[in-house]
């Protein structure tokens, strides 16, 4: 299984490749960017404390 960092790098490379082929504002580039954002959000949120475990 790939690490999340490896997946992020793969998506980043794919997005740049698509942008180079289709242009920065092309629909495929936008979708690739959104996919990368989703993966990055997972990475950023995995270290956040759970609100369930939060003490008042």
Automatic annotation (TrEMBL):
Pfam families: SpoOE-like (PF09388). Gene3D superfamilies: Helix-loop-helix DNA-binding domain. InterPro entries: HLH_DNA-bd_sf, Spo0E-like, Spo0E-like_sf. This is Spo0E family sporulation regulatory protein-aspartic acid phosphatase. It comes from Metabacillus endolithicus.
């Amino acid at each position: 299984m790939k690490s999340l960092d490896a997946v992020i790098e793969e998506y980043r490379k794919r997005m740049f490749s698509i942008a180079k082929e289709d242009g920065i504002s092309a629909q495929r580039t936008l979708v690739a960017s959104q996919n990368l954002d989703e993966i990055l959000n997972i990475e950023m949120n995995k270290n956040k404390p759970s609100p369930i475990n939060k003490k008042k």
